[in-house]
User: Which sequence fits this backbone?
């Protein structure tokens, strides 16, 4: 529960606390422990994602920030899942990325990549976002965290 409070603070999620704490605190604590076990057992981010978004009913933003800080707290510093937020990633980076992808797809005769968000907060859109981040990290020889902080820096101006 202490980690959740820190995630809300570090992730600038205080305004959503009423949604995060909508269930009994014992249920939240037990569910976070279940999520932590998923991550520790096999670094199964998809399973942990489903626990956060389905069992707790959290948004993609809250789930991604929780996964990020949970994995960082477990010592996964190299390439942890990174947070996705609305202000920068969804409202600024996604339009830029999808515009560039649209041009490339039409030139190569390929399909457009799927969106990074859906109404159900499902795993697939977040996985597409993390695929892009991992590709950029590999190309630059950076960590996923370095890519995410660079995107924020570049697009938040």
Assistant:
């Amino acid at each position: 529960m202490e980690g959740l409070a820190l995630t809300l603070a570090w992730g600038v999620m205080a305004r959503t606390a009423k949604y995060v704490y909508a269930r009994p605190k014992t249920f939240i604590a037990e569910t976070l422990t279940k999520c932590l076990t998923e991550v520790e057992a096999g670094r199964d981010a998809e399973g942990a994602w489903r626990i956060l978004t389905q069992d707790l009913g959290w948004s993609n933003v809250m789930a991604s920030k929780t996964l990020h800080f949970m994995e960082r707290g477990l010592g996964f510093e190299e390439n942890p899942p990174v947070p996705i937020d609305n202000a920068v990633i969804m409202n600024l980076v996604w339009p830029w990325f999808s515009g560039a992808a649209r041009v490339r797809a039409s030139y190569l005769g390929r399909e457009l990549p799927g969106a990074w968000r859906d109404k159900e907060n499902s795993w697939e859109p977040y996985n597409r976002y993390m695929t892009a981040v991992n590709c950029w990290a590999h190309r630059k020889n950076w960590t996923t965290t370095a890519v995410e902080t660079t995107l924020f820096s570049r697009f938040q101006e």
The chain has two domains: 2-73, 86-155. The chain has a mean pLDDT of 85. The CA atoms of residues 146 and 157 lie 17 Å apart.
